[in-house]
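Predict the assembly for these two chains.
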Amino acid sequence: MTGKVAVVVFPGSNCEHDVVHALRLLGGDAELVWHRVSDLSEFSGVVLPGGFAHGDYLRTGAIARFSPVMPEVERLAAAGAPVLGICNGFQVLCEAGLLPGAMVANRDLEFISRPVHVRVESTGGVLTANASVGDVLRIPLNSYEGNFVAPPAALDALESAGRVVLRYCDAEGNVDESSNPNGSTNAIAGIVGAAGNVAGLMPHPERASEAILGSADGRVLLESFLASLHSAAVVT
Amino acid sequence: MSITRKAGLSDPEGVATGRALRDLGYDEVGEVHFGRAITLEIDDGRLLDAAEGATPVADGRIREMCERLLANPVIEDYSIEALP
């Protein structure tokens, strides 16, 4: 195993230990890093975990986006290193402009905390490389602002380039309005950036990484991320 | 400043509130748009002529604050009003 993963802790993050646990379970080398750290030179990849960074004040991710660690996250992203945002971390990556779009309140104005199904739409990028198109995964969703929106041009760019990697679906893999838990545009649950190394998703794969948690379907996503560390560009 | 969701983008709070207003009989209500109001106290003299609007310097810096932090230009519009 090469490459160490920084799991960034913002004030208000609450999934960082779960992410470190899951990555280590899968053979990864992961370590918590406080958001005021401004040097990630010893790391080959980054995870921004879920939670409520800076209390979600102003907008989700808006203040975290200016944490001292973020220029380093942006540097690693630009260097081709895998960068994954889960739930609140996805919102931070959108605010930082590392991924397109934004998340608004769920369609039914409910905080959703339950397992949902997502379908693998593409295996491009660091999140789904080890999965197969059409795979249906059962993974917990835990968010109030998980409703993905993006301007039409950004949506077209995502869809036409196969950068929508996960879509909400039912247990059989059908995508329709009733299987879309939060109203996300085009039922988008996870996307990757243009270069494929930056990824974000709203469901929590770390909470579906062991049978005892009720599902191990999230493992393939974290395994894809860890596998991409090997092939990532050398980061100086 | 006043920050509102861009027209055409999903605004679930606005939809729910509009429905509630119509349920109360206010049939004249169409779309409802949610946003937030932010008041900044700026005490360095650059807004002293606020009665005639913010000075170009302050206005430029406040626009910058909106673009960089206070609004998300991907989904929100903003407007600025100088108060005395």
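Chain A has a mean pLDDT of 94. The longest strand of chain A covers residues 112-120.
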